[in-house]
Design a protein that fits this description.
The structure is a single chain. This protein has helices at residues 10-22, 24-42, 54-61, 67-72, 74-115, 124-127, 132-140, 145-148, 201-206, 208-219, 224-236; strands at 152-157, 160-165, 172-176, 195-199, 248-251, 268-274, 290-292, 303-309. The chain is 42% helix and 13% strand. The two termini are 16 Å apart. It has 2 domains: 45-115; 124-309, no CATH class. It has an 8-stranded mixed beta sheet, sandwiched between helices. The protein is of the alpha+beta class and 322 residues long. It is globular, with a radius of gyration of 27 Å.
Length: 322
């Protein structure tokens, strides 16, 4: 709960995030908390007049007529009111407990469904964006307009990524789907995932080919095991390049959706390297702004990826701290 409320120190928040990326059980727990919170926020208390007899409502609205008589009998009335309050308090407590149990059980059932909701690939239609212009706009939102307005734009089609707009500055913007998650992620097949990214020229040459290859294999119907073997062979045969020096990517869109656990997340930059120890960047140390991204950790790609949060979305508006 402290993580969800943004109350953890930066180093602990980073550690929690890294764990959350790979732990289906904790992703379900996060979704459970968020679901209950959302339902409670939407819960409207019925008017106290509902279910109360009309004569009582009329009496409650009636202007007091006999104040002196009431004062004379106050001690006895006070005892009755006190008793009435205890009765109402008990009833309210029962209602709250019942409602809370119902919300929790409903949320748990929903999360049980969610935790097993992506066991395999959905139909390709669910991953595509029918509105081509909307996907172009979403891809451009990955980086500030000064960068993305002249970038090459890719959109996902039935056979893979296609060029929608030719660029002029060497950057390439696109919207990644869920299969760029770690292979052991519970949301590897989540059709709701939309991750706007804008690769700089070095990353467009050395990181983007991996996205293209994974996508082609997914659309060809390969299993995870087959994809892992193919990626390993691609790097061994030098068909897939290792990250070039200076390879980085903008992920500053406020409209992206990383997964069910993280939602829109926060704007950040990503930097790619051949396998290296995270201590060389001071990643995940107390008060360090650098985080080791688990995307390729333990996977077939010999890539180390660091993340640095930034304070603004691509449109220049302020963003929450990472």
């Amino acid at each position: 709960m402290a993580y969800l409320d943004g109350e953890l120190p930066p180093d602990q928040a980073t550690e929690a995030l890294s764990h959350l990326e790979l732990c289906p059980e904790c992703q379900t727990l996060v979704a459970d908390f968020r679901g209950v919170s959302k339902e409670l926020m939407a819960w409207e208390i019925e008017s106290p007049e509902v279910g109360i007899p009309p004569e009582i409502n009329a009496a409650l609205r009636e202007r007091p007529q006999k104040r002196e008589a009431t004062k004379a009998s106050w001690p006895r009335l006070e005892n009755r009111v006190s008793t009435s309050r205890w009765v109402w308090a008990g009833a309210l407590a029962i209602v709250c407990v019942a409602a809370g149990l119902k919300l929790t059980l409903n949320s748990r059932h929903q999360n049980e469904d969610r935790s097993t909701g992506y066991p395999s690939m959905a139909s390709i239609e669910q991953y595509l964006m029918p509105d081509r212009d909307a996907e172009i706009a979403l891809a451009r939102s990955a980086a500030p307009a000064a960068i993305s307005s002249d970038a090459k734009i890719l959109v996902l089609g039935w056979r893979g990524y296609e060029t929608a707009i030719e660029g002029r500055n060497g950057f390439v913007c696109m919207v990644e789907r869920s299969w760029m998650s770690p292979f052991n992620s519970a949301e590897f097949w989540n059709p709701k995932v939309r991750v706007p990214q804008c690769f700089n020229p070095a990353a467009a040459r050395s990181i983007l080919p991996l996205t293209i290859k994974r996508t082609e294999m997914v659309l060809a119907g390969l299993s995870k095991a087959q994809m892992i073997d193919s990626i390993k062979a691609g790097f061994d045969n030098k068909e897939l390049p290792i990250p070039e020096p200076g390879a980085m990517c903008y992920m500053m869109s406020r409209a992206g959706y990383l997964n069910d656990a993280l939602g829109h997340y926060v704007p950040h930059l990503m930097f790619y390297f051949p396998l290296t120890d995270k201590s060389s960047w001071g990643a995940d140390l107390p008060d360090s702004p650098v985080t080791l991204n688990p995307q390729f950790q333990g996977g077939p790609e010999p890539i180390t990826e660091f993340v640095i949060g930034v304070g603004k979305w691509s449109d220049g508006t302020a963003a929450p701290a990472m």
